[in-house]
Amino acid sequence: MATLVLSTLGRAVGGPVGGAIGGLLGHQLDRALFAPRHRAGPRLAEPRVQTAAYATPLPLLFGVTRVSGTLLWSTEPAPAAQAAHGKSGRGGAGYTASLAVALSARAILDVRRIWADGQLLRGAAGDWKSATGFRLHRGTEDQLPDPLIAAHAPDAPAFRGLAYAVFEQLQLADFGGRVPSLSFEVVADAAPVRVGDVARAIGAGAIVGAGPDATVDGYAAGGDSVAGALAPLASLTGGWFVAVPGGVALADRCAVTLALDDPIARETLRRPVETAPRAVTVAHYDAARDYQVGAQHARRGGAGWREEMVELPATVSAARAAALARDTLRRAERARVSRTVTLDARALAARPGAAVRLDGEAAAWRVTRARYEQHAVTLELAALDDAPSAIAPADAGTARRAPDVAIGATVLQLAELPPLDEAAPAVEGVTVFAAGTAPGWRRAALLVSDDAGASWQAAGDTAPAAVIGALAAPLARAPGTLVDRHGTIELLLAHDDMVLESCAPRALDRGANLALVGDELVQFADARQLAPRRWRLSTLLRARRGSAAAAWGVGTRFVLVERATRVTVAPPGARAGDTLRVLAAGVGDAAPVSAELTLDGSALAPPSPVHLRARAAADGATLLTWTRRSRHGWRWDAAPVPLGEERELYVVTLDGARRVTVQEPRLLLPIGHGARRVAVRQQGTLALSRPTMLEL
Asked: Of 159, 289, 306, 350, which has the fewest beta carbons less than 10 angstroms from its beta carbon?
């Protein structure tokens, strides 16, 4: 800019020669203003921790890159409120916080992945790994204030021209109860972007001209000056700043080559080889490494000890960075030789940035500085480097990348199950199993209603993911008194990361591999995977823990019953006959998943008696006998077992009408009783068992 002003003034005073002199003087001023300053530009650092300091410069983003951003606004962490959708945390037990993070001082197109403490918070498919509300303001000049910020501060600015992201009620349970360090994959422009276009956008009128044609995948421009913001791009392209009419240009080639004859004086300076670096390292952001910092090295032979580090806050490939390291090393080697020539006034046309040849020499030199003294023009020349290295494959190294595991939708199953241990239950409730359709699912928030959905109560969270699936082939009925070596269970699990395992006979005898098929509890000894998600189970024990054996069709539910993957929901006052409705909402659910179950009291009841028999007495009467079972003795069928109830009591129903109560496992029917059908139930402390039936 100073070049343009002083050139115009010089022409007005002294004609063409005065204009040339003014241009040279103006170049000196532009050089002082735009020369790269030490640490004036953006620095290379792992994009992990967002800043929150006042006067922190915001970057101008180009292409696709990863940035940490600057904290604009936040609330204090607060206890999470339980919401029907489950988006407010884990069962109301954790904390949430809302915050806004500035991303770019120019408009952007979108945000893709988001990392929190180095782990993915939002995946490539746009799925969230933790619960949060999210809004993106792209930095347009007509954007409105964010409604959440405006609700806390009525005079909140709209931050027009500033791209920022707002998190609403980000649950903090996954981050140790604190706000995590966030970083963002930002799409500012369609990548790759031309370096020349980036230079003009950063210069905002001060930088003119087409500029270098080289491209970068992404760039975060920052620093305390235009030159500082552009210096890394000058390093990338081997470019330099040059004064041109209308402003300053970033050039990587000489547009004009002049032939200069008959120098008045010339001098060639050759600096020692030790002044050039022996090794160059280029550090850069690598998209193949999730934008983590990569480093590529180049080394030359010969004398010297210096090592140079080029910090390039741009997204380029490892191969491109390796080529830049070789180019930087070669340029430094060639820069050891420089020239100074003095010519007459005819050389005034040789402006900085032009290429010149002297006395017919084949090699061209670039003018770096020109001065007019005592009717002579002195030019300082640098070797012209116009042969960039070819791009060759390079090793990007091994990166520790955050796994992008899909969460999937919640799969919910309800059952009324007896205790898995030998303790008697105290209240009526429903057992909840849940999982996801993808392996990233962890938990879901629960709500329960016992009044047909008129009101809902928070019920905490589900347990960790259960193994859930459905039958892929029918399962025939089989007796529960024998090992079923003929029948098999073929099923499809919710996703392929779910695994079933075989177990030894001793483990099977102790209750291992217990599963719910429909409403029947089954054990299996052998598990074999047939295909992705598809399994075959064999060596079965049917009708376990007091459940009833039945035939089950295709699509019947399958749930592996484990203590660690189940939770019991027990609303106060629930009793047999009530219908409980359950809502579950996980991070991957577009809407809450619902299920309902009508309680029949089976979870509170003792197991039904077995071995019900009728024997004719000598006098013509009929003696009914049976064997008691107990929650404290599942493995015993014939031997006496602990009672497990407050008292021993049985209800015997004859032909569905007459009821008799006895306190021992036997009943004598008198001669001529006339009964044709008998049902025996054990009276438990809280409920009656299922009936055991006998036709007389």
From this structure: 306
What the block records as the tokens of 229 is 């913001």
Which residues 6+ apart lie within 8 Å of 655 measured at CB?
Answer: 675, 676, 677
Using alpha carbons, list the distances in angstroms from residue 92 to 31, 83, 96, 432: 62, 8, 10, 18
- CB-based contacts of 174: which residues, under 8 Å, 6+ apart? 116, 129, 130
The number of residues making up the chain comes to 696
Which is nearest to 171 in space by CA: 94, 56, 85?
A: 94
Provide the pairing of β-strand 337-343 with 265-270: antiparallel
CA gap 642, 631 in Å, rounded: 8
Q: Where are the alpha helices (DSSP H) in 607-665?
A: none
The domains found in the chain, sorted by start residue, are 60-187 (no CATH), 257-383 (no CATH), 410-598 (no CATH), 610-695 (2.60.40.10)
Question: Residues 59-115: pLDDT tens digits?
Answer: 999 999 999 989 999 999 888 764 433 444 443 347 899 999 999 999 999 999 999
State the burial class of residue 383 (Cβ atoms within 10 Å of its Cβ: 0-12, 13-18, 19+). Answer: middle
**DSSP-assigned states of every residue in 203-243:** HTTSB-S-----EESEEEE-SSSHHHHHHHHHHHHT-EEEE
Coil vs helix vs strand at 671: coil
Cα 652 from Cα 18, distance rounded (Å): 123
Give the residue ranges of the chain where pLDDT is below 70.
1-56, 81-93, 386-387, 421-426, 633-639
